[in-house]
């Protein structure tokens, strides 16, 4: 019996720690960023522009940066990106106006892409060939934990800073210096803890030849369309939730961060259940069982009678979304030919990001335009601040219908089908 290679080496653990630290840092401003931008003079209608600028730069440079990592090495580019995170993370905390915040936010999207895209490739380089899926799953789990901790951590730092006597705007600035410190720690871990393997030029040329002539499967083009539509829909939800909790219920960043963190940990449980269920019962049932309730819970959040009810509905929506998302990720793996799997996943992410650029712009504009209005539809009073939630749910149901009508969903049965994919939210 052949002994399996050790997977949890120092390098793999460092990449997991890097993912944990980076996602904590990325999640720090979730609970208060819109409030920070408004305090610097931005209007509510422009809040989505900050998210779109970040996503646009990331989308624009992702293919280029991926190519650079092939030519010049993963480790170098990761370190450069992390140093950029240190610099521009700190600059986010000292900008004098919302215009400067927008510029720094856009550049931060570029350096974050430089830090994250090569890291996935480096993980595959370092992992045993027969256990790549397990290694990717470990690092993705670290990222999920970080995303869940980040909003609460950021809200706690902001609350403590404000309680210590700082002005409100200065309390929004402090967490960004913590963010920069985290990026510095990650850069040191990567620089001194990982030795990058060298790949023979001959092998690179052989793989390049093998990929020639392979085209994007027609069914995957439908998935790319769905990715773009989903990106628009999520852009109507993500940047609005903090504004909604603050405007409607007067929740502070610490309370908002707590809700986001608890909802995030709920999704860990949902992901575990959905992963096992999709293998046992098929992708379709998981996508349906997660997709429909997620859209319904999202649509009724604006009708919540209080902060507690809204928090429960938000958590329920997050749970069901994670179930749907796991099923969809498994489906993407089923339909991607192994020879061009990385390219297809990259295209999927690019399409999602493209939609995610437009979504926040439209969402914050509509939210600001109608948030003080109420529409009477028969005997039902519909709050105007819920428009982004309604649109998100409608777009989600359209996407689900396209998937069910035009994409054949079966169970994964092909050996060696493990994939490395990033979360589209």
Question: Would you give an account of this structure?
Answer:
The protein has 425 residues and is mainly α. The protein folds into two domains: 191 residues, Growth Hormone, Chain: A, CATH 1.20.1250.20; 203 residues, Growth Hormone, Chain: A. Helices cover 76% and strands 2% of the residues. The chain contains 15 helices and two strands. The protein has a two-stranded antiparallel sheet with strand order 1-2. Helix 3 runs antiparallel to helix 4, helix 3 runs antiparallel to helix 14 and helix 11 runs antiparallel to helix 12. It starts with 9 loop residues before the first helix and ends in a 19-residue tail after the last helix.
Any descriptors?
Growth Hormone, Chain: A, 425 residues, 15 helices, 2 strands
When the domains are counted, the total is 2
pLDDT < 50 runs, ≥5 residues: 411-425
What is the end-to-end distance?
42 Å
CATH architecture of the largest domain: Up-down Bundle
Shape: globular
CATH topology of the largest domain: Growth Hormone, Chain: A
- The amount of beta strand, in percent, is under 5%
Largest sheet: 2 strands, antiparallel
H-E string: HHHHHHHHHHHHHHEEH
Q: Could you estimate the helical fraction of the residues in percent?
A: over 70%
CATH homology-level superfamily of the largest domain = MFS general substrate transporter like domains
- The strand count comes to 2
**Which sequence of strands runs across the widest sheet?**
1-2
Radius of gyration: 21 Å
Q: What structural category do the secondary elements indicate?
A: mainly alpha
* Name of the CATH first level of the largest domain: Mainly Alpha
How would you state the average pLDDT, rounded?
80
What's the total helix number?
15
